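Researcher: We plan to redesign the surface later, but first we want a full-length starting point. Tokens attached.
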């Protein structure tokens, strides 16, 4: 399993880092078999796995079940556990919840935004952090690209410099202009992982359901569908139904 230091070494060597979300045992096994560097158990599972409209609708108890399942399915892969909405509302709550993720096998936690004192507290208690800046789905009013105005871009750069200076080994940069993603990548020691942050970040992350074509919704502008698992699944189920109908005839 890659450690945070191994992941930072990849940046130093100019090697790209691959991260993909996965939420359960079976898909974690597939991601590990494919050789992905990191698996993110994102709170996007509220949407992709549970059908909720917002990631705010999932809490620690549900997240823990999925994080533990992924750790069992991919014991040799660096698993990033996403801190759900309000689970990091203050340093002590964040630490207690992060500890629960680490205890079931997560290698680090991901924190959206910069809740006061949380990064400092977790890092001082040896919990590695992947920060998350740019579009922050837990609190965003809309899903438009962030950092387009000078003011917004400056705030994202400030936040990136801040979490970098604290010692976060990695940061997700979501839905920001390519030139901002490139600029931040050049100015921080942390590994930058883009999702709609352009092609010059140190690595990329995608939501598994988008990458594997597991739904029929419109993809976000930055996502690519690499296979059409929805169609394959429907086809498989149809063949199964046909075999049931034909059995014993
Ligand atoms: O929850 C998630 O899947 C995420 C990614 C979009 C980075 O945070």
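Model: Full-length starting sequence:
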């Amino acid at each position: 399993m890659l450690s945070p230091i191994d992941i930072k070494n990849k940046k130093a060597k100019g090697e790209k880092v691959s991260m993909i979300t996965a939420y359960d045992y079976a898909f974690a096994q597939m991601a590990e078999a494919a050789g992905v560097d990191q698996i993110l158990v994102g709170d996007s599972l509220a949407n992709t796995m549970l059908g909720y409209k917002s990631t705010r609708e999932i809490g620690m108890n549900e997240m823990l079940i999925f994080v533990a399942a992924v750790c069992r399915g991919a014991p040799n892969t660096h698993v990033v556990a996403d801190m759900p909405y309000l689970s990091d509302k203050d340093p002590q709550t964040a630490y207690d919840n992060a500890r629960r993720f680490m205890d079931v096998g997560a290698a680090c936690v991901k924190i959206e935004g910069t809740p006061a004192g949380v990064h400092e507290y977790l890092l001082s208690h040896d919990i590695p952090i992947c920060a998350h800046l740019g579009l922050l789905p837990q609190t965003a009013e809309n899903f438009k690209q962030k950092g387009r105005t000078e003011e917004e871009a400056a705030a994202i750069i400030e936040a990136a410099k801040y979490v970098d200076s604290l010692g976060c080994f990695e940061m997700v940069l979501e839905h920001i202009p390519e030139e901002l993603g490139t600029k931040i990548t050049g100015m921080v020691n942390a590994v930058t992982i883009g999702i709609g942050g352009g092609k010059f970040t140190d690595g990329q992350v995608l939501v598994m359901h988008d990458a594997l074509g597991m739904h029929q919704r419109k993809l976000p502008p930055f996502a690519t569908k690499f296979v059409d698992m929805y169609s394959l699944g429907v086809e498989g189920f149809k063949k199964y139904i046909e075999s049931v109908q034909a059995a014993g005839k």
